[in-house]
Amino acid sequence: MTDRLPRIGVLGIMQELYDHMIPGITQRQAGYARDIAQRLSGVAECVVGGPVKGREETERAVRAFEDADLDGVLIVMLTYAPSLRAARLFAGMRLPVCLANVQPDPAVTPAWDMDDMTYNQGIHGAQDTANAMVRAGLPFEVVTGEWNDDAFVERVGRWARAARAVTAWKTLKVGVFGYAMNGMGDARVDESALLRRLGPEVVAIAPGELHRTVQELPDSAVEELMAWEDERFDVDPRLSKEERGDHARMQIAIERILARRGIGAYSTHFDAIAEDGRFARLPMASASSLMAKGYGFAGEGDVLAASIVYAGHQLAGDGHFTEMYAMDFPSDSILMSHMGEGNWRVARSDEPIRLIKRPLGIGRLDDPPTLLFRIQPGPATLASLVYLGGERFRLVVAEGEVLDSQELPALEMPYGQFRPDSGVRGCMDAWLRAGGTHHMVMNLGRIAADWAALCTLTGIELVQV
């Protein structure tokens, strides 16, 4: 679901009076905008509009970007242009914005004439434009630098991924099968506030729809999934064909419901499945493989966590749902796991992913086939979406490292040990003070700066611990 590059519209703004001063300037600066887009081609698919000079054509260009389902708009000042030509546009901007504070030539030289001064005068246009966006209350990112260097490309790429996540959130539906876990307060959210402020819409899915879809599936679809699992995973020989077939039916049925209803993230609660009375086991392996396909997921009806896992997919790829299970003070790390759901794309590359027969008392159902793996050692980042009441949200982020740690033979669910950069004591003190939730997304790599870019575009408060 996140294999594609972010799709970005490049809006080049300039002043029409320079056409009389310097014939051909519009064509020259249009080429400059295309050069920038080409330089960014490794991090974003850029759609370059023609240079805009007045209010009507500026608004028309941005509406075209919105109609083309782009992820964001990169504004480039091709020359100075008065900001009031775009001021009303900023008041109703629907796409995330980045202001590229760049110029064609990196250095001022004695060879410059007045034409060169005009070509390179974008900085004061950027100031005028940024001021208009601030007055309009529009969140936006700024990247100042040499347009042709790697640092500029990296920073714009980070913004573009954040824009993709923010734009995807605006149309995200989060399905909850049954109901959320009773008494779990840190997952509670005003669903209307979530929809208004960030975009995710919560959709209730009756267990009966899952049951009907399971019953309607052809045997061929089940056999196909099981054959794929035989090739991809180390399958426990103790698993019966009935157990595997039952699990496969639930996975296929869940995915069909999500696809049919346009849902990009979901959550299941073990009691909601168990108390229905029509299901033999919990869909543990289903969650792992659907996360691996790019769906957001969280346990226990947690729509906040499901939303942030989905954002993790969009932002950096391979969002992994997890929670902090226990602290290990000798290694200064935290055992990360959950009841059995985890994105197997973050598994260690030097060990097979196992599909196991796994007894589980929670839910009081039959043994659920579960995907078991250890998390790949190396840099990693945790992020927790916190609801603060009203329309206030906070993101608590921790960078650190997944250790090449001990095996835990009795732990029959995905796991790894995460050492925060700030240490267990410092990290947990700050995490708890900030209200960080007990469900979160993990991404491999250090991506706190990516989460910061997302917060800039949404107005979410960022707390890095």
Descriptive overview:
Helices cover 38% and strands 22% of the residues. With 465 residues, the chain is of the alpha/beta class. α11 (241-260) crosses α13. The protein is elongated, with a radius of gyration of 25 Å.
Structural descriptors:
single chain; about 475 residues; alpha/beta; Rossmann fold; L-fucose Isomerase, Chain A, domain 3; 2 domains; six-stranded antiparallel barrel; five-stranded parallel β-sheet; 19 strands; L-arabinose isomerase; manganese; L-arabinose isomerase activity
Summarize the structure.
With 465 residues, this protein is α/β, with parallel strands linked by helices. It has helices at residues 18-21, 25-39, 55-67, 87-91, 114-119, 122-135, 150-170, 191-197, 207-216, 219-232, 241-260, 270-274, 284-292, 303-316, 423-433, 448-458, and strands spanning 7-13, 45-48, 72-77, 97-101, 140-144, 173-177, 201-205, 234-235, 265-268, 296-299, 320-328, 333-337, 354-356, 370-372, 378-387, 393-402, 415-420, 440-444, 461-464.
